[in-house]
Each structure stands twice: as C-alpha cells, then as structure tokens.
Automatic annotation (TrEMBL):
<dbReference type="GO" id="GO:0008253">
    <property type="term" value="F:5'-nucleotidase activity"/>
</dbReference>
<protein>
    <submittedName>
        <fullName>5'-nucleotidase, cytosolic IAb</fullName>
    </submittedName>
</protein>
<dbReference type="GO" id="GO:0005829">
    <property type="term" value="C:cytosol"/>
</dbReference>
<dbReference type="GO" id="GO:0046085">
    <property type="term" value="P:adenosine metabolic process"/>
</dbReference>
<dbReference type="GO" id="GO:0000166">
    <property type="term" value="F:nucleotide binding"/>
</dbReference>
<dbReference type="GO" id="GO:0000287">
    <property type="term" value="F:magnesium ion binding"/>
</dbReference>
<dbReference type="Pfam" id="PF06189">
    <property type="entry name" value="5-nucleotidase"/>
</dbReference>
<dbReference type="InterPro" id="IPR010394">
    <property type="entry name" value="5-nucleotidase"/>
</dbReference>
<dbReference type="GO" id="GO:0009117">
    <property type="term" value="P:nucleotide metabolic process"/>
</dbReference>
C-alpha cells in the first residue's frame, strides 16, 4: 500500500546544525543531502536519511511526486539488491529491481519503529 509524506514545516539554517529545530518540531524524518547533518540527527535519535542527486542518466519522472528509496543496511530487510549492485553494477541492479518490484523482501525486522 503506498504511503504519502506530508510536510508541515520547513526551515533553513544557513549551514548551521538543524538539531535544535528538529527536536523542537518533533521531526519524524529528516532528509538532507549533507551526510554529516544526517549523522548528527541519527546520533540524537532522530530518524534521518541522506538524499542523493539523481544520476546524469535519468528517466522521465513526474513533476508532482516525491520518490524516496530507503536503504535498510540489511537490518530492516534483505541486502540481496545491494549484493547484486556490488557484484554486477547499477544496470543489473535496476534490472533486478524492475523484475522483482512486486516481490516481498526476504527479511523484515520484527520491530516497529515509531
């Protein structure tokens, strides 16, 4: 079942740490292109992920959708796709993902993340 993200607040910190704002806003998920800020948020117990710019070779995407891919580092789910990427490269990774897009992942963490 698809889920949607709602954005209630947005703040710009001019390069300073966002941690104070994230805590005050009771942030559920912090997304940033700055891996150091993501690491800082994670160390403070805030769910966070690094956003990457799309590669030069792009496919046509919707202007009205936000697409997010989560990498669970084999803790939340199987690392099968990552192993395929490391062994065979990005093109084979995308082929595998497309071929298995409707297949459940092998391993799911039994914990619930608030």
């Amino acid at each position: 079942m698809p889920f949607s993200l709602s954005f209630e607040r947005f703040c710009m910190t001019g390069g300073n740490s966002p941690i104070g704002y994230l805590k005050a806003y009771h942030t559920n998920l912090y997304l940033s292109a700055d891996p150091m800020k993501v690491r800082e948020a994670l160390e403070e117990g805030i769910a966070a992920a690094t956003m990457f710019n799309p590669p030069e070779k792009r496919t046509e995407v919707s202007e009205t959708q936000l697409r997010v891919a989560f990498d669970g580092d084999a803790v939340l789910f199987s690392d099968e796709s990552e192993r395929i990427f490391k062994a065979h490269g990005l093109d084979k990774f995308f082929e595998h993902e497309k071929a298995h897009e409707n297949t459940l992942l092998d391993h799911v963490c039994p914990c619930i993340i608030p």
